[in-house]
Amino acid sequence: MRRDSRLSGVLHLLLHMAQQSGPVTSGVLAKAMSTNPVVIRQVMAGLRNSGYVRSEKGHGGGWTLTCDLSEVTLRDVYTSLGCPSLLAIGNRTDETGCLVEQAVNVALDRAFRDAEALLLSRFGEVTLAALNADVCKRLAARGGSHDLETNHA
Q1: Please, what's the b/e burial string for 96-107 (b: 16 or more CB within 10 A of its CB; e: otherwise)?
Q2: Which of 20, 33, 52, 122 could form a disulfide with 47 if both were Cys (CB 3.0 to 4.6 A apart)?
Q3: Which residues, 6+ apart, have CB-to-CB distance to 38 below 8 Å?
Q4: Which Pfam families does this UniProt record tie to the protein (predicted)?
Q5: How far apart, in whole angstroms, are the C-alpha atoms of residue 38 and residue 81?
Q6: In this structure, are residues 126 and 11 in contact, taking their beta carbons and an 8 Å threshold?
Q7: What is the pLDDT of residue 152?
Q8: Cα-based angle 65, 83, 41 (whole degrees, multiple of 5)
Q9: What residue ranges define each of the domains in the chain, with the CATH number in brackets?
Q10: Contacts of 58 (CB under 8 A, 6+ apart)
């Protein structure tokens, strides 16, 4: 089963944007993510609707952060993506006449709910500011500046 990597990708974009002094175009972000600018615009729409970013058209335009990184958590970003499924596993069938499968489903459903609640709770504890601080520490250790167009690795 293919994993949903949108949360990771959006966090990647937001943290790159946090390192920039001005707007960043969809084209530059797309190059950093090895994707198409249209994909970037689609992903950023949910963030714009949540008030985390804005975009400006024209020369000198692009995407900019509009939020305080210390007030936005991983859970907030996850929610802005429409709350995609957190787990890649599930029940074989949801509606079954088999008593054995019913018992299995009840046990698994309980475990899935508990796991999702724990994960969402942890997401709520991690701010974008904490992630950005880690990025800054890594940049300092590498001894370089952050140039999205030429240094993305």
Answers
A1: eeeeeeeeebee
A2: 52
A3: 26
A4: Rrf2
A5: 16
A6: no
A7: 61
A8: 40
A9: 6-86+127-151 (1.10.10.10)
A10: none
Which residue, chain included where needed, has tokens 């001005």?
22
Reference 51, options 35, 71, 32; nearest CA is 71
Q: Is residue 30 classed exposed, middle or buried when 0-12, 13-18 and 19+ CB atoms within 10 A define those classes? A: middle
User: Tens digit of pLDDT per residue, the chain (153 long)?
Assistant: 577 888 999 999 999 999 998 999 999 999 988 999 999 999 899 899 999 999 999 888 899 999 999 999 999 999 999 999 898 888 898 888 999 999 999 999 999 999 999 999 999 999 999 999 999 999 889 887 766 665 565
Largest alpha-carbon pair distance within the chain? 64
Length of the chain: 153
Q: What pLDDT score was predicted for residue 102?
A: 95
Per-residue confidence (pLDDT) for residue 151, from 0 to 100: 58
Q: How does DSSP classify residue 127? A: B
Pairwise CA distance, residues 104 & 29, whole Å: 44
